[in-house]
Structure formats: C-alpha cells, structure tokens
Write a structure and sequence with these properties.
151 residues; globular; 54% strand; 11% helix
C-alpha cells in the first residue's frame, strides 16, 4: 500500500460479475476483527495468509482517512482476534492489475457470503483512473460497506 504521511485515499465499489477472477494475478485469505469500531477511530486486527497486522484508521473524510498499519507476530494476531467485538470477517482478496492500478476485490465468506466489493487505492483524490468492466455501483463512504460494520 502506498501511504503519504499516514493518509489513505481509497474508492470502493460493488462488483457486478466474476470476471475479476480471470484477471487476478494473486489471491490472499484474510481474517480480521475489530478491537474498536468507533467511527472516529477503528482498531483492526488482521491475519493475511500467515502474517498478522494491527491497523488504526481515522474517520473517513470523503475518500481519504488516516491509516497506520503495523506487522505483528502471527500468534499475537490470533490472540487479539479473540478479543474483537462482534464477528470476525473472513474474505478472499483477489488482486487485479488494471490500467496502472491494483484493484483489490474482496469475496466475503461466512455471514457476509455473496458480498463482493472492490477497492482502488489512489495517490490522491484528484487522480483519474479507468474502471474495469466488473465494477458496479460506487459505495465509497457508505457505512454499510465498512468492514468494521460487517463484523
């Protein structure tokens, strides 16, 4: 992920078909939960494949927010997931390189099964980008699609 002084600029979309699977160059299994789901500041624990992460995110201002992510020992991440609020979110993330940007397409598992969301991280809000055919309605800023609210 590219970050400028802890700022993340990201756009989020619903996915309308499965054509991203044929375009994907890599996939990861992700399990994550939230120690804090306050909209002003979320604290997330994530295991991506066999690596643990602790992430702190600020409130969304449009498509931008503060984000700080740190790798932590895998066993610590597993233990901390047990302290998380609500359900743990499980998803398979597919990476698609399209027109110079990496799109991350998340197929949610478990109670959120059938939900598929794509995100693109941008260097800034005013950057133009091409949208692949599998992209549907934009849901950037819609709290219904925040991972913290899906847990």
């Amino acid at each position: 992920h590219k970050r400028i002084m802890g700022l993340e600029t990201e756009r989020k979309y619903l996915v309308k078909d499965s054509s991203y699977r044929n375009l994907s160059f890599k996939s990861s299994v992700i399990t994550q939960g939230y120690l804090n789901r306050d909209p002003e500041r979320t604290v997330r624990i994530r295991i991506k494949d066999e690596t643990g992460f602790l992430t702190v995110k600020g409130k969304n201002i449009g498509d931008t927010r503060l984000e700080f992510e740190y790798e932590i020992p895998l066993q610590d991440a597993r233990t901390l997931l047990g302290l998380c609020y609500g359900c743990v979110v499980e998803k398979i993330r597919h990476y698609v390189n399209y027109s110079g940007f990496i799109w991350e397409v998340d197929e949610f598992q478990g109670r959120n099964a059938s939900l598929v969301v794509a995100e693109i991280e941008l260097p800034s809000s005013d950057v133009d980008f091409d949208v692949p055919d599998f992209i549907g309605v934009e849901v950037t800023g819609d709290p219904n699609y925040y991972n913290s609210n899906l847990s």
